[in-house]
Amino acid sequence: MTGFWRRYTASVRRRSERIPPALARLAPALCLAWTGVFMMFACLRVIASPAPGTLGELAQILACYTVIALAPLAGYSLAAAAYPSARMVRASRLHLPIPGRWRFLSAEDARRHPLFGPAGFMASLLIGLLLNVVMRSGEFLLAVPALSASAPRWAETMFVLMAANVAVMSFLYMACFAMALRSVPLFPRMMGFIWLLDIAFQLFISRSLGAIPGLPGEVAAPLGTLLQGNIHKVLISAFVWLPYLLLSDRVNVTYRHRLPATVPLPGRASG
What we know:
This protein has about 270 residues and is mostly helical. The chain has helices spanning about 1-50, 55-80, 105-110, 120-145, 155-180, 185-210, 215-245, 250-255, and strands spanning about 100-105, 260.
């Protein structure tokens, strides 16, 4: 039984090691494809929404959707251009005070270590970052109608704030995806910053819309549910992934260039 489990885990690890190179090859094409798919559904959303008063208002609505559609591609492209190679960035020696003794590795020793690279559970996190962009954008299309300046003030403000939220977070999540994929040491800190910013953005939207007079109760209730759901999803993601990002040997080798002092250099640990 032990031999079977070892063979199974080795097989899973080998398959997970093939995911990051495939994502690296396909990421630009996936971003371009998503841009086209999103704009297609955005046009359908505009058709199904109240007609804008002028062509200028229609152009403003389409501009908002275009920014959202291009945000993932822009985030990935800028991060990939900023970090063409993880060799350009040194791992910081300033970390959270996690109990235990650590052995710090040189950049070359870390790259030669068997656990270096975004494989194992990190491959699942990479896929989760991609799915998060798709789900957040899809929720925006389904929940928020295309509203222009001719709509009530609360409606126009809601559309602009929700569109800005989706665009900014899609940009940042894809930038974080690129950093994780390229084994950039700043990735774990960037991931934590994005979680905090995402929650703060939801609270800002709730407070801003709540301060506008005339917001109908039948709109406020589902909007509050949507924003609360976004916060819950971020908290669940952090609850699931934060312990892994702090304690995983693979993450510590790849993004912090260190190992627990009790783990021998040539050894393998859980990914």
